[in-house]
Amino acid sequence: MEIGITIRHTAWRTALPEARRVTRKAALAALALASEPPANELAIVLADDALVRALNKDYRGIDKATNVLAFRYADGETAPAPGEALGDVVVALETARREAETAGRSLHEHLSHLVIHGVLHLLGYDHANDPDAETMENLEIQALAGIGITNPYMPAGAMTKK
Hints:
Layout: E1 2-7, H1 11-15, H2 19-31, E2 41-47, H3 49-60, E3 68-72, E4 85-92, H4 93-103, H5 107-122, H6 130-146
Helix pairs in contact: 2-5, 4-5, 5-6
């Protein structure tokens, strides 16, 4: 799987110098949960709130920044054929940093979570209803545990996993 990582907002380089490595590791952890190789290419963009807000407005009709957007290349419920691109994940630095601080987590941990979340969307998972949300959260917890990151849905400082 080719994973292209683009840093579109240079503040990522100072906020988290190892952002490329963290992003790649998280993406691979999420992809490892796929039952079969989903595609041969994935693009991840580390951006700022301004770009994510513009994309959110253009593609979802929501005029505000969000933490992560996922743009799946395959139409509908069909997974991309082997050899095709999976899609794009775009992460907003300012929102990610703010959420990490609020949750008492490092930017490294939260970026990992957001990348995994975005890749799971590309793999066809969503959180439109409670059962789907629970499935997706459990997959996120599993992928994060695989790279040594604790359950993000537990209160800060909690020692047990879900």
